[in-house]
Please model this.
Amino acid sequence: MTQPIFQQRIRVMIFVLVCMMLLMPFISGCGKKQEAMKEGIAFTTKYQAVFMDNGQVFFGRLANMGSTYPVLMDVFYIRQQTNPNTKEVKNILIRRGNEWHGPDRMYINASHISVIEPVSEGSQVAKLIKEADEQKPAGK
Model:
């Protein structure tokens, strides 16, 4: 009679060991993700594109990447404008800061950031930002 109880215990122990072995990669992966967040992410380009989970995209200089609320400075976004006569749609780069409250930075909830990408120096966005900086009035 003791043989079946012993076999049941062995089966339970084997089941527990198999479950632990299956969960181990997930547990160790979580630790690595948190380690990466502590180390921070470094970009080699001046500007970054920040894609939000609601579809908005902002361009700017990102700081405090490992924090709950990273900061985006010198912020731009794209607005579509339709010519009423030709129905042609144009994308226009807009500098944030001209709104009524005159923001000079954005604190972004990190949990709503989907993707962050570097804005390469030769890209169309980088060229438009450079043009906007050249047209910016002195003192701003």
About this structure: The longest strand covers residues 71-82.
